[in-house]
Amino acid sequence: MCAPMSKRRLDFDIVVAGAGPAGIAAACIAAENGRRTAVLDATPWVGGQIWRGQETKRSSRAAGRWLERLTASGARMIRCAADIAAPRAGVLLAETGEGPLELSWQKLILAVGARELFLPFPGWTLPNVTGPGGMQVLVKAGLPVAGKRVVVAGSGPLLIAASAELRKAGARVVVVAEQAGLSDLVRFAAALPRSAPKKIFQALQYQLRLLGVPYRTGCWVTAAQGGQKVEQVTIQSQKKTWTIPCDYLACAYGLVPNLELPRLLGCRLENGVVLVNLWQETSVGDVYCAGEPTGIGGEDRALIEGRIAGHAASGRTDKADCLFKARKRARKFSLAMDRAFALRDELKHLAQPDTIVCRCEDVTRRQLEPYDGWRSAKLHTRCGMGPCQGRVCGGAARVLFGWKHESVRPPLFPVTVGTLADADLLPENKSS
Amino acid sequence: MSKSFDVVIVGAGIVGAASAAECSRAGLKVLVLDRGPIGAGSTGAAMGHLVVMDDSEAQFALTSYSLQLWRRLAPELPDDVEYNPCGTLWIAADEEEMAAVFRKKEYYEGQGLRVEVLDAASLAAAEPNLRRGLAGGLRVVDDAVIYPPCAARFLLERAKENGAEVRTGIEVSSLDAHGGVGLADGTRISAAISVNAAGCGSPALTPGLPVRKRKGHLVVTDRYPGFIRHQIVELGYLKSAHSVSADSVAFNVQPRGAGQVLIGSSRQFDAEKSEIDQDMLRRMLRRALEFLPGLKHLSALRSWAGHRPATPDKLPLIGPSPESDKVWFATGHEGLGITTSLATGKLLADLIVGRPTEIPAAPYAPERLLKGDADHG
Amino acid sequence: MADLVTITVDSVSVSVPAGTVLAAAIVQAGVTRFRRSTKGEPRGPLCGMGICFECRVTVNGRPHCRSCQMLCEDGMDVRTDE
Q: Do residues A148 and A96 share a domain?
């Protein structure tokens, strides 16, 4: 591996953005194929959301194998490097603890994962209300939940995984409230082909039963109440409404891809995901995409697509086509999941007029109603102009109002003014 | 053909909005059209400063008159306009610039404006985050800052209260010499007068109109209440705004409602696209860091670029076209559109209705740049 | 035996195993209100993955640090609700 040209710039053949399962797989393959490879992540950890904590507390055999493989591959892992801009062709700019870092690439693989979809309801901004994925990550990160009563709600298999994690940590999961109806879920389980993803879903359900956690379908949270933090939640089904006291509420409605970096690079999207060809290549030459941003599909799909992208980017498409059948199965599974967990209409009406939709700027539903699109709403209410740059409220606005996001601008994440100014690259600033 | 409107204003930015508010207040039946949302053009990209500038007597007259109107309006402005009478601090880096500060002070005081000269020590006390070693500055006490898109919306609401109509999402393709406008969909709307208040879009409606796009960049930070207390501008800003050709940057920061710091400014001609020019952005920020070194550690949330509609003599076009008294202009405000919007609206309404204007309108007359030409017929 | 790391949260000392994420340590110190919204409402972590910005606190004098994206370091001084 060549020494970097300067402290602030590193050159690689292949740069992988994101160190979750897809990014790890892509980086391993690329490095093993002899390419000078780097994989970067905004966090101090390797594993993304799915494999968070696996570096120190190994509980997944797949994670363990891939993490060891990554270390052995020779790919360079760059932690605490958040993508912020793509200033020139072939260059990615990242913000690190020490200032800006330029990474030059011949091929770029986007493995930037997904985030939870939050739909506002009264009280959702109270402390101790998180997403199920967020709760899972926080618990793995050391959040003390032993003996705490937790309501897990929303939609998707993540509710089950989060509940299992909570139970392992000693929390009392009072109920899991899944908005999808029982018949949809039964149909989904029955329609699955005999393949690994099905087994995982079944295993999680079985685990949940063993743990004694009530899993209720066809119901959703309509409100969280409390003073300085959540103290109870109200759940509704088509037939009844009931209230449960709790210490935490973990509620979100599935996952949505992180599309900021793909959009910044000009990748074409279709149906809200990055469009890729057989080789995971996007509409932008030399830019590949793997995992959740091409369609929510979890660990299996991420690993398969990461490997295909890794091979394709390193010029070894011959090694990639044996993975096509597995990818096809994984994509079918994704589609089935989408159908099974499709969001019901009632969720669009949970937000009341004075329910906050944009948390960064405290903009309520009532304030947003007069506008006919994201652009004018943003301009006049500042919704989406806060630090999250629409990552939380944008998903909600799409479901509530049908608003589509407009173009992205750098920096993709907040950076210091110094980084934006490249101040570290200036001659010594005597005036400070 | 019945004239359904007295005035059709093309452009729902702050200038069009102020014009609508004043025209409708004068009893005229007004229609405002814009191809996009309210305030989505230069107004939506702008810094929102309300500042008296003295590049020329005419500029001083227009800006100071407009500031008076803003001050009068201030108590009625809703919270989301974020009117903040923080004043402007013009910074002198050295003794030469300090001499300019004293000259400015003389002039402004002579015109009845409240100003205060600050020496190095009092400058440091007024703005502790400025670097040491500056010579001093001039505090223009009654300057202010606002959030422009909400101001535009407020002014249009005022206009509507007086019977005006506002239609967004309507693309205008031409201004009729006989009154009214032609829309992109082929239909026409008739009016006694049409007003081109389309900012950077104004030359498209009036071919040959000497309005050029002048690109600017801005960066906004997260909340740091108290990091700066005034709008702060280096005297070099004047050189940057003066120049008619070169790319330039000048230090200019502004405190926003909840303590965000808005950082500008840059100027470029022949940069038509709205994408961020990374090199220009860097130049601008490095300039800002020279004055406010502590900015280095602040968290920057967003950066964006926009365009100012600029005329060759740095004064806007306010008044009738020399070729037709049914086509009027309220455009070309460069970096003073927010400041001079209210004065523009008032002058325009006065001229249309035939009332005496409160300041001479001749310096802004379109005919000075659009002399009637035999070829145009 | 796991290494322990000691930080202060609003002047309260708390010791956590090395590798603990700052947000978790803040909760252990008894804090639920990490920050206030523009209208002054109490807020705490939502997403756990660095995109909601609700877990921001001041660390060693630097404001707006996302505590869910940081590891605890010995001697860290954390202020919430600033």
A: no
Are residues A213 and A127 part of one domain? Answer: yes
Cβ-nearest to A379 among B40, B282, B300 = B40
Asked if B281 has any chain A CB less than 8 Å from its own CB, the reply is yes
Per-residue confidence (pLDDT) for residue A175, from 0 to 100: 95
Q: Which residues have a Cβ under 8 Å from the Cβ of B78 and sit 6 or more positions away?
A: B150, B154
At B270 the pLDDT is 86
For residues A232 and A160, what is the distance between their CA atoms, to the nearest angstrom?
21
CA A219 – CA A240 distance, rounded (Å): 9
- Is the domain of A248 the same as that of A292? no
Q: Least CA distance to B221: which residue of chain C? A: C64
| Token code pair at residue B44 | 């939506």
Taking CB atoms and an 8 Å limit, are B299 and C38 in contact across chains? no
Q: What's the alpha-carbon Rg for chain A, to the nearest Å? A: 22
Q: Is residue A239 located within the same domain as residue A279? A: no
A231 touches chain C (CB under 8 A): no
Give residue-wise pLDDT tens across range A288-297. 999 999 999 9
Distance from CA of C3 to the nearest CA of B (A): 32
| Residues A391, A267 within the same domain | no
Are B227 and B260 found together in one domain? yes
Radius of gyration of the CA atoms of chain C, in A? 12
pLDDT digits (tens, 9 = 90+) for A218-256: 999 999 999 999 999 999 999 999 999 999 999 999 999
B196 and B299 in a single domain? The answer is no
Q: What ranges make up the beta strands (E) of A34-182?
A: 37-40, 76-78, 82-85, 91-96, 99-104, 107-110, 114-116, 129-130, 149-155, 172-178
Residues B219 and B291 in one domain: yes
Q: How many domains does chain C have?
A: 1
Nearest CA in chain B to A361: B258
Q: Are residues A158 and A233 in the same domain?
A: yes
Mutate to test the interface with C, among B224, B299, B301, B302 (most CBs of C within 10 A): B299
Q: Residue A398: pLDDT band by 50, 70, 90 thresholds? A: very high
Position with higher pLDDT, B319 vs A58: B319
A141 interaction partners in chain C (CB closer than 8 Å) = 20-21, 23-24, 48, 68
Residues 232-291 on B with a CB inside 8 Å of C are 258
- Domain membership of residue B56 (yes or no) is no
Indicate the number of domains in chain B: 2
- Are A179 and A303 members of one domain? no
Closest CA to A316 of A13, A25, A35: A35
Asked whether the whole model's pTM tops 0.90, one would answer yes
Provide the shortest C-alpha distance from residue C31 to chain B (in Å): 22
Radius of gyration of chain B (CA): 20
Which residues, at least 6 apart from B168, have a Cβ–Cβ distance to it below 8 Å?
Answer: A376, B12, B33, B34, B35, B36, B37, B38
Tell whether the model's pLDDT for residue B371 goes beyond 70.
Answer: yes
Domain span holding position A180: 118-253
Task: State the pLDDT at residue A228.
Answer: 95
Residue B59 domain-assigned (yes or no): no
Minimal Cα–Cα distance from A268 to chain B, Å? 18
Of A376, A410, A411, the CB nearest to B37: A376
C63 touches chain B (CB under 8 A): yes
Residues of B in contact with C64 (CB under 8 A): 222-223, 299
Are residues B330 and B209 in contact, defined by beta-carbon separation less than 8 angstroms? Answer: no
CATH number of the domain that residue B127 is part of: 3.30.9.10
Domain carrying residue B271: 84-143+212-310
Pair B153, B112 in one domain: no
B222, B260, B295, B302: which to substitute to probe chain C, counting the most C Cβ within 10 Å?
Answer: B222
* Same domain membership, residue B194 and residue B233: no
Mutate to test the interface with C, among A46, A125, A136 (most CBs of C within 10 A): A125
- For residues B224 and B283, membership in a common domain is answered with yes
* Digit-coded pLDDT (tens) for B13-22: 999 999 999 9
Determine which helix (DSSP H) or strand (DSSP E) holds A417, and give its type and residue range. helix A417-420
